[in-house]
Amino acid sequence: MSRESKKTCSAEEEDNKSFIECAEFVLPWLSPRELASISLTCKTLNSLSKSITIRRVSDASRNLEKNPIPFINTIDSEPYSYFIYTFSQIFSSPCLSQSWGTNPKRNVSSSVSLMKFGSNVTSLMSDSTSGCVCKNCSEDTNGDIRCPCSKLKPLSLSNMGSDSSELGLMTECGPSCDCGVECKNRLTQRGVSVQVRIGKDARKGWSLYSAQFVPRGEFVCEYAGELLTTQEARKRQKKYDDIASTSQFGSALLVVREHLPSGNACLRVNIDATRVGNAARFINHSCDGGNLSTVLVRGSGALFPRLCFFASRDILDGEELAFSYGEPMLKQNGLKCFCGSSCCLGALPSEET
Ligand SMILES: C[S@@+](CC[C@H](N)C(=O)[O-])C[C@H]1O[C@@H](n2cnc3c(N)ncnc32)[C@H](O)[C@@H]1O
């Protein structure tokens, strides 16, 4: 090979390298449809798109959780479910975006969105004076947390129209406390705490399974998503109902009501995990209450409580995770329930939002 053609060749290689680098940066921001269409334009982009799909399938959490959360679909050809990942609740915003499937060897990660979501979470504060000044709240010999933040008086609660006794209340250190994320009184603030995987069921769609033994009482995960005003929640629910009436579509909008002991509703929290959420958006309903209990967790200085799931009994490795979406108030166009429990009522609970 002449010196001239060697030179041209290495210039081409350089061009190709920067093309791939540029594509590696841009492609993880694309939706599955955009990724599929761009993969048709050239061989290089096709193989890059395939590797991005493989990375997406291997971890729904985009490296944001301690353990990867893989998708396993043996039912049809949909490789993964596309949504924006957040490990806690965030204020809704029309223009959220997040990359997914970047090459872990390159220094292009989801950290931009993580920072964005992180600041969004801390801005959900009521005041900065109610927290503790402990440096790291510790447990006493009985296993109780020694911290003023874990001693707030519980309110009585109800969620999604269900019986008030079903929803517990916990208080933790929050954004206005001095202690850090490793504090013992921040059990529910470190993301999904057990190993899980997302599988597909022929009738229920995507479902969340435990990938380890989980003892009764253990914290599993938060129900993360967009916090909506009631007006926005009603608007979205209507849109979701319309879509569900003509196609197989599962929304993930939960309404939680917090009551005063008198029984009058005092706070309503609308969490929509349909577009932005975490692994909990894949937890299906079970008429027998499933294996998860719901607990509202209030953090000192936080404006809104967070909805968290704890194991209501021992959960075996491979078991599907489920909870009760609430009382069945059957609508004419209500979705069929396939929970398979002996007390199944045949329809999913659906409340007027
Ligand atoms: C929070 S999402 C759960 C994840 C959902 N399966 C998916 O594919 O994304 C709620 C939706 O899942 C479906 N679903 C949940 N529990 C179900 C059940 N027991 N039987 C049938 N469908 C169920 C319904 O479509 C419901 O609107």
UniProtKB/TrEMBL annotation:
<keyword id="KW-0949">S-adenosyl-L-methionine</keyword>
<keyword id="KW-0808">Transferase</keyword>
<dbReference type="GO" id="GO:0042054">
    <property type="term" value="F:histone methyltransferase activity"/>
</dbReference>
<dbReference type="GO" id="GO:0032259">
    <property type="term" value="P:methylation"/>
</dbReference>
<dbReference type="GO" id="GO:0005694">
    <property type="term" value="C:chromosome"/>
</dbReference>
<feature type="domain" description="Post-SET">
    <location>
        <begin position="333"/>
        <end position="349"/>
    </location>
</feature>
<dbReference type="Pfam" id="PF05033">
    <property type="entry name" value="Pre-SET"/>
</dbReference>
<dbReference type="InterPro" id="IPR050973">
    <property type="entry name" value="H3K9_Histone-Lys_N-MTase"/>
</dbReference>
<dbReference type="GO" id="GO:0008270">
    <property type="term" value="F:zinc ion binding"/>
</dbReference>
<dbReference type="InterPro" id="IPR046341">
    <property type="entry name" value="SET_dom_sf"/>
</dbReference>
<keyword id="KW-0489">Methyltransferase</keyword>
<dbReference type="InterPro" id="IPR001214">
    <property type="entry name" value="SET_dom"/>
</dbReference>
<dbReference type="Pfam" id="PF00856">
    <property type="entry name" value="SET"/>
</dbReference>
<keyword id="KW-0479">Metal-binding</keyword>
<keyword id="KW-0158">Chromosome</keyword>
<dbReference type="InterPro" id="IPR007728">
    <property type="entry name" value="Pre-SET_dom"/>
</dbReference>
<keyword id="KW-0862">Zinc</keyword>
<protein>
    <recommendedName>
        <fullName>SET domain-containing protein</fullName>
    </recommendedName>
</protein>
<feature type="domain" description="SET">
    <location>
        <begin position="194"/>
        <end position="326"/>
    </location>
</feature>
<dbReference type="InterPro" id="IPR003616">
    <property type="entry name" value="Post-SET_dom"/>
</dbReference>
<dbReference type="GO" id="GO:0005634">
    <property type="term" value="C:nucleus"/>
</dbReference>
